[in-house]
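Dear colleagues,

For the upcoming journal club I promised to circulate an example of a predicted protein-ligand complex. I picked one with fe (ii) ion because it came up in last month's discussion. The inputs are reproduced below in full, followed by the predicted structure.
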Amino acid sequence: MAVIGIESSAHTLGVGIADKGKVLANEKMMYDVGTTGIIPAKAAEQHIENIGSVIGAALSKAGMDKSGITGIGYTKGPGLGPCLRVGQLAAKTLSMELKVPIVPVNHAIGHIEVARHVSGAKDPIVLYVSGGNSQILGIINEPFRHYHVFGETFDIGVGNMLDSFARAAKLNPAWGSSVAKLAEGGKYIQMPYTVKGMDFTFTGLLTNAVKMLEANDPRDVAYSMQETAFAMLCEAIERAMLLTKKREVLLSGGVAQSKRLKEMLEIMTATHNGAVYAAPNEFNADNGAMIAIVAEKMLDTGMQKKPEDCDINQKYRADAAEIRW
Ligand code: FE2
């Protein structure tokens, strides 16, 4: 089986190919968010212009042509409508042309399951941290096998907070990685810290940090905001670990690329005889391979849809997706 996965939920257009759990290709093209953040219609336009060449690049990386494709997966959501449409239409077209099965994939489950697959975690409590969302999840079997959300952000994703701060601080590129670089050598200033049980919020912290840029060393502000946000996540997931008695903490999503977050989680989990699992960064940023890996698992367990029933859902939650494997 060679399953192709198309990811186009936001700024990244990714195409991956997986065969029996092995990633054969993981090609991508990114929309430049510049200083304005993502403009959905413009990102979608760029995805449309490049979908053919990114699929071609993935096929040539995998050393095959279209005729070798035996299944197709695409991101159903969550994400930006115009961007999701591009992957959906490309996937449906390929499915009808090649007469191979197609399955819609939840974007968050793509991030989580590729990280579980690659890292070897068995039954983890998951910290899924991205621009669009931040959640704590773990698999439960009732009323169907799925990732239950134990806690989540009440407002924005921690990645959104980092990127918004990066733009306010005029960092280039305006990503969390630039904030991490700026934070090096910074000193701690107290900032708003909001955890409610296993839920958390980031807008108050962001507003405060942006305001503090006016009268403080940007390195201190970046360091303090990052430390505060990550400490909030550590507190919430520690509570979830103790509640569920799970000892594997799986870090996934775009912000899983943060070395500091992983380090803080390792300090916390060590006190509970736990361990942190994560995938290489290639699989933490948005990518097509995560969709291909999950689509293959779904197709293997009989989950597929008729092309005409393949829709998108901008607010498709991780806890609504069935995990049969
Ligand atoms: Fe993502």
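Two points we might discuss: The mean pLDDT is 97. Residues 2-110+284-320 form a domain with the Nucleotidyltransferase; domain 5 fold (CATH 3.30.420.40).

See you all on Thursday,
B. R.
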